[in-house]
User: Which sequence fits this backbone?
């Protein structure tokens, strides 16, 4: 039986949860399909979205979004989407006066120890609009991906502080959601990577971990997804409950199925 991610999580654009931090993690595979899912999901849910995109260009996300039924160009023009294009902004920051604030200010600092300008950018992007403005359902922060910040010289503690403050404002104060992707390199020698992954896991309400197959490449099964509910929304639900599904990425969607239940095998 083929399933979609919304069915696995028990959510829909009309009945999505609020006040949650969702951690997306990938190990030995590309977990970007999870980012595209949540981006299209929240735009369809009529939420105000701040997307901190540190990996790909706006056109890349827009092309994938159109395949999934959303237009990022339209969403940005109507004020629903605030898009920080890291690839472009990382160049712009070096051509601005030092006193002029920039979300990626840390790039031109010898000691990249603070992400406060980036936090202030998120806070400004998602602040409630005055009466008479567009009425979005709730704010959402999406980050792709946090591991890039480590590669740019930001310490794991600074990244965890950034997520903590974003969670306090977006999830707690504004009753919105935060979704962030992080890579698991699997190397015990990378202490910063391990610290970031461990710290984010403790802050998260839901963890989606995409993993490559132990057997290597397969044409009909592209990987497996582990779902861990750390803080269930229902009081009767079991904390720490987890499920594992295999998946296949298609042109316009991703199909999920139980282990060993691939349509190609059956």
Assistant:
């Amino acid at each position: 039986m083929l399933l979609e991610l919304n069915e696995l999580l028990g959510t829909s654009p009309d009945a999505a949860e609020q006040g949650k931090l969702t951690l997306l993690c990938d190990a030995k595979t590309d977990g970007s399909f999870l980012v595209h899912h949540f981006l299209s999901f929240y735009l369809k849910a009529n939420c105000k979205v701040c997307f901190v995109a540190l990996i790909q260009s706006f056109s890349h996300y827009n092309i994938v979004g159109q395949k999934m039924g959303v237009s990022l160009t339209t969403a940005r023009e109507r004020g629903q989407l605030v898009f920080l294009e890291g690839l472009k902004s990382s160049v712009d920051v070096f051509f601005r006066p030092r006193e002029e604030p920039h979300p990626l200010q840390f790039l031109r600092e010898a000691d990249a120890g603070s992400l406060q300008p980036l936090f202030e950018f998120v806070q400004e992007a998602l602040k409630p609009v005055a009466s008479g403005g567009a009425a979005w359902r709730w704010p959402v922060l999406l980050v792709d991906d946090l591991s890039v910040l480590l590669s740019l010289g930001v310490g794991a503690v600074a990244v965890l502080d950034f997520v903590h403050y974003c969670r306090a404002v977006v999830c707690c104060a504004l009753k919105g959601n935060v979704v962030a992707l992080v890579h698991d390199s699997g190397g015990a020698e990378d202490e910063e990577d391990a610290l970031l992954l461990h710290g984010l896991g403790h802050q998260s309400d839901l963890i989606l971990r995409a993993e490559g197959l132990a057997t290597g490449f397969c044409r009909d099964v592209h990987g497996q997804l582990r779902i861990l509910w750390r803080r269930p929304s229902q009081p009767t639900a079991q904390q720490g409950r987890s499920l594992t599904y295999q998946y296949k990425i298609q042109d316009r969607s991703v199909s999920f199925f139980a282990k060993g239940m691939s349509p190609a095998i059956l």
Observations:
- The chain has a mean pLDDT of 86.
- Strands lie at 21-27, 48-53, 81-85, 139-144, 177-183, 206-211, 223-229, 241-249, 254-257.
